[in-house]
Amino acid sequence: MFKALGAILVIAGVLYSVWAALSHRKLSQPPQSSANQNSASLEPRAQGLKFLGLTKNLPAIALILIGGVLLLYAD
């Protein structure tokens, strides 16, 4: 029973991390000017790596760690 709960917590942590990374921003937008039409990517410029920050992913990391502990040590 605890192993199933651990697996659920790990999966929930990964899904929460994905949701936190993809929420509240546009993934792509059409080119705004004729200079951008030959761009290789539709991703917006200067989006940075802020979505990988610890503060946004702390709940996900906690869920993954608790689930991992339950998977390792539960009977």
From TrEMBL:
This is Uncharacterized protein. The chain crosses the membrane at residues 58-74. Keywords: Membrane, Transmembrane, Transmembrane helix. It comes from the Bacteria.
